[in-house]
């Protein structure tokens, strides 16, 4: 699924390239690493396994950064909001999600996986991180609330697809998990990692979610979808 998303995005990057637009994102440009990143449950389990695979010293640094982030979010009430959004049975309005996103971004908290402005989990980073590309000047990203940026439309959002798949498979409300909550969420759902499904079932259901996503995405305003 990750490769499918990347290949779909590569086609979009090539398309805008024909219009003279190229991504301005470069290694060391970590402005977007202060944004709130949503993960699907399968991605959350994958991230936890990646953390466990790291040397003990690195694990300790990562866990300490997650703990610091939690304390900061608890003190502002944002942690509680994110927890409620994570387990909400009803679809939340864009207004509510935007308000939480803005409050989180205003704190300018660096991603727990960021070290010296470099992503330490780059090869295993969430789909949402992979899908965010801009063609506007990089300095605009220093304040995404004040400066308009030009994003490249993401034809397929893998986190959303996998989140919807997880809902169907487990009959639960969890769709997307905010990155700061990911380790806590996985610890609370450790038993789910032992569940198994037939590969053909997973493949068919995933393709169904992909088609539904693409149908909705391209039936609306393409420009609005990339905003």
Characterization of this structure:
- The protein is mostly helical and 227 residues long.
- Helix content is 55%, strand content 4%.
- The strands form two sheets. It has a two-stranded antiparallel sheet. A two-stranded antiparallel ribbon has the order 2-3.
- Strand 2 (114-115) and strand 3 form a beta hairpin.
- The longest helix is centred in the N-terminal third of the chain and has 21 residues, at 56-76.
- The radius of gyration is 18 Å and the shape is globular.
- It starts with a helix and ends with a helix.
Provide the fold topology.
Elements: H1 2-17, E1 38-39, H2 41-53, H3 56-76, H4 78-87, H5 94-107, E2 114-115, E3 118-119, H6 127-131, H7 158-170, E4 177-178, H8 182-188, H9 199-219, H10 222-225
Antiparallel strand pairs: 1-4, 2-3
Helix pairs in contact: 2-8, 4-5, 7-9
Describe the structure in brief:
The protein is mostly helical and 227 residues long. 55% of the residues lie in helices and 4% in strands.
């Amino acid at each position: 699924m990750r490769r499918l998303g990347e290949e779909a995005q590569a086609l979009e990057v090539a398309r805008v390239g024909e219009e003279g637009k190229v991504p301005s994102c470069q290694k060391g440009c970590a402005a977007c690493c202060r944004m709130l990143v949503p993960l699907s449950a399968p991605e959350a389990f994958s991230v936890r396994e990646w953390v466990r695979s790291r040397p003990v010293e690195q694990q300790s640094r990562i866990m300490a950064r997650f703990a610091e982030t939690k304390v900061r979010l608890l003190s502002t009430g944002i942690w509680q909001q994110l927890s409620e959004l994570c387990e909400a049975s009803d679809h939340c309005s864009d207004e509510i999600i935007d308000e939480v996103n803005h409050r989180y971004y205003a704190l300018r908290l660096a991603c727990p996986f960021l070290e010296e402005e470099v992503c330490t989990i780059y090869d295993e980073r969430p789909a949402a991180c992979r899908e965010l590309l801009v063609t506007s000047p990089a300095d605009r990203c220093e304040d995404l609330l004040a400066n308009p940026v030009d994003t490249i439309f993401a034809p397929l959002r893998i986190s959303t697809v996998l989140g919807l798949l997880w809902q169907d498979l487990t009959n639960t409300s969890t769709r997307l998990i905010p990155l700061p909550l990911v380790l806590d969420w996985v610890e609370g759902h450790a038993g789910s990692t032992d569940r198994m499904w037939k590969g053909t079932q997973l493949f068919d259901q995933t393709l169904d979610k992909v088609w539904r996503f693409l149908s909705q995405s391209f039936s609306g305003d393409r420009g609005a979808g990339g905003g």
